[in-house]
Amino acid sequence: MAKFLALFTKITVLIALLHQSIASESLQRCRRDTTCVLTPEVTEGPYYWNTTLMRQNISEDRDGIPLRIQILVNDINTCTPIADAAVTMWHCDAGGIYSHYIQASQNVQNPQKDNSTFLRGILLTDANGLVTFDTIYPGWYIGRSIHIHVKVHLGGTYLNETSYYSGAKYVHTGQLFFNDSFSDLVNEQTPYTNHTGSRTLNSQDGIYASTKGYTLMAVQYANSSSGFSGGLTTTVTLAVQGLSSANTTTVASTTDGSQESTTSNSLTSSCGGHTGGRPFWFW
Ligand SMILES: *[C@@H]1O[C@H](CO)[C@@H](O)[C@H](O)[C@H]1NC(C)=O
Ligand SMILES: *[C@@H]1O[C@H](CO)[C@@H](O)[C@H](O)[C@H]1NC(C)=O
Ligand SMILES: *[C@@H]1O[C@H](CO)[C@@H](O)[C@H](O)[C@H]1NC(C)=O
Ligand SMILES: *[C@@H]1O[C@H](CO)[C@@H](O)[C@H](O)[C@H]1NC(C)=O
Ligand SMILES: *[C@@H]1O[C@H](CO)[C@@H](O)[C@H](O)[C@H]1NC(C)=O
Ligand SMILES: *[C@@H]1O[C@H](CO)[C@@H](O)[C@H](O)[C@H]1NC(C)=O
Ligand SMILES: *[C@@H]1O[C@H](CO)[C@@H](O)[C@H](O)[C@H]1NC(C)=O
Ligand SMILES: *[C@@H]1O[C@H](CO)[C@@H](O)[C@H](O)[C@H]1NC(C)=O
């Protein structure tokens, strides 16, 4: 009996060690492979608007340095690109103003909403899971570092501009960030120089902290020999729960309420995204 107990203990310890080593290996693998780490959910903020503007170029009349952003939407569980994902983007102009909320973003008392639509748009990913938006480098406003808002909906059907995109499930609300050293250079260019006051850095922004840097984008000159005048390019991956495993809320369309909940995708830890997939010891 004692012998059996000793053997049992040894085996238990061995299994525990094995689990520990595999778990840590899986953690490391997860960290290396950031595109298969669930992109952290962060607040939608007060400036979302459920428009139906399906378009690549969201710049309209806004002055600023042209920026092309390519976004890859990946399924966290299969680690493969998702086609026909609806990616919604919105951000402020060089002076920190959001369309539809021009008064609110200038701190006007009792602000009225307006019908301007600059720097907002929606695109469906292609077969490779990619969308490309043409916009301008965002400005900033008091209390936040420079960022771009995004939402991802899956499983909807696009009919036309009237009936739009229905039957979708919401899987992601997030924010994209820029390297502050690069933003320093941008803010030396017109019209960004027009903005007075003190800019909040990523290191001072609690929302940036909660993204753990997963959506920090590396920006490049589109044409290295022409600097800012040639425009900028960047890419980012949004890794979301696929339709099969998503803890999602069914919504009528991407035009659902202007204060859509951000809590339905509650997994926010970097490697917790795999909980819907295989158990860790299979890794
Ligand atoms: C986007 O639209 C703006 C304004 O209509 C235009 O000036 C700009 O060249 C367009 N960007 C691209 C990449 O086509
Ligand atoms: C915005 O458009 C809506 C719908 O057409 C209209 O009811 C509203 O008065 C408009 N708001 C402004 C400020 O023009
Ligand atoms: C859009 O699709 C709906 C549903 O099929 C249809 O009723 C409507 O007439 C279409 N609108 C346009 C502008 O094609
Ligand atoms: C931002 O860019 C600078 C200059 O290229 C680089 O030294 C720094 O490490 C970058 N910061 C982050 C957080 O990536
Ligand atoms: C520059 O700032 C002033 C004062 O805030 C504003 O009236 C003007 O429209 C701004 N110009 C540009 C190009 O943003
Ligand atoms: C890149 O910029 C240089 C310098 O302005 C210009 O001569 C060249 O034609 C540009 N290349 C492209 C591909 O636009
Ligand atoms: C946007 O949401 C509001 C509030 O829920 C709703 O009344 C409106 O119809 C939606 N707009 C569109 C274009 O669907
Ligand atoms: C799904 O999300 C909701 C809202 O955050 C949460 O209450 C619920 O526990 C989640 N369900 C699962 C299975 O994770």
TrEMBL record:
Lineage top rank: taxon: Eukaryota
UniProt keyword annotations, A-Z: Signal
Biased composition, class Polar residues, residue ranges: 256-271
Region (Disordered): 249-271
Pfam hit, one: Dioxygenase_C
Sequence intervals crossing the membrane: none
Coiled-coil residue windows: none
Keyword match Signal: yes
Signal peptide per UniProt: 1-23
Domain Intradiol ring-cleavage dioxygenases: 44-142
Single GO molecular function: ferric iron binding
Record carries keyword RNA-binding: no
Name of this chain's protein: Intradiol ring-cleavage dioxygenases domain-containing protein
Organism from which the protein derives: Adineta ricciae (Rotifer)
